[in-house]
Design goal:
InterPro entries: ICL/PEPM (IPR039556), Pyrv/PenolPyrv_kinase-like_dom (IPR015813), Pyrv_kinase-like_dom_sf (IPR040442). Pfam families: PEP_mutase. The chain has helices at residues 12-24, 37-44, 55-63, 73-85, 102-115, 142-155, 169-173, 175-187, 201-210, 230-236, 246-265, 278-284, 287-297, 301-316; strands at 29-34, 51-53, 91-94, 119-123, 162-167, 192-195, 215-218, 238-243. It contains 14 helices and 8 strands. It starts with 11 loop residues before the first helix and ends with a helix. Strand 3, helix 5 and strand 4 (119-123) form a beta-alpha-beta unit. An 8-stranded parallel β-sheet has the order 6-5-4-3-2-1-8-7. 40% of the residues are buried. The protein has 2 domains: 12-251, TIM Barrel (Alpha-Beta Barrel); 269-316, no CATH class.
Length: 317
Amino acid sequence: MGTNVTQPSADPAGKRQALKAALAGGPLVVAPGVFDLISARLADAQDPAALYMTGYGTVASHLGVPDAGLATYTDMVGRVRQLAQHTRAPLIADGDTGYGGLLNVQHTVRGYEQAGAAAIQLEDQEFPKKCGHTPGRRVVAAEEMVKKIRVAVDSRDDPDFLIIARTDARTTHGLEEALRRIALYGEAGADMLFLEAPESEREMERIGGEADKPLVANMVEGGRTPVLSAERLRAFGYRMAIYPATGFLAAAAMLERVYADLVATGSSAGLDHQLYSFDAFSRLMGFEEVWAFDRRHADEPDNVAAAGSERTKDQED
């Protein structure tokens, strides 16, 4: 088991242009959800058109707490920077509510852009926010979110840095209000629209038929929205699908199995067929660069050993 790994790109502008080009036409843009540097490297090695930094998964892996508004801007912008620097694919980053009022939104947009993200997702929940597929979510007035979108658009330096506007109004206020909101957010200047948690294919088809900006579909296994094929989503009018939970749900399932077996048997013998190759993992993490550096700059192992023997002999003499 292994993955071909190439060097990450340090060109944020190029990544943003690549994302805009992918969204302009062609197949659905599929963005695997990433939540730490291991998941990011593994997903990036598959050469996706984009990666999605999931707030739920990032908060869980970084802080070990629910995605319920407990993470700060500082927590999250640091993760954005790490993920963007170590991957080639454009990174779409969850910016929650912007972490406060209008001035906070300006600060968040500028920080995410400077950290290397290709796009930021902002939502209209009240602060503190909650995961979009859990109960108890409340939204601010649509007019307040319109102001946030306008501030976000005005705050970016690179016009290719995309603003994704999300509404969580469907669950509490119904589909009509959610559709009204994304229309307003599009008029305010959002580049992409994200109507969270539609509850049927019929609703998704209607959303695709009425939206006048590129649409994001949120495919959460076990969530409120049906998980559809790429072809079906494209036919409904969606341009991008994010899969925020797929990676951490898969990792949790496998870790639970191997840890339970390890504790029960007292040994990892027999688990090889369930484990990633250690050599491949070392290469995934970039050890080939370390080995190449050592060959160029460090003493050869034989020379080091010989020098050590000579020093020992001299000391004995």
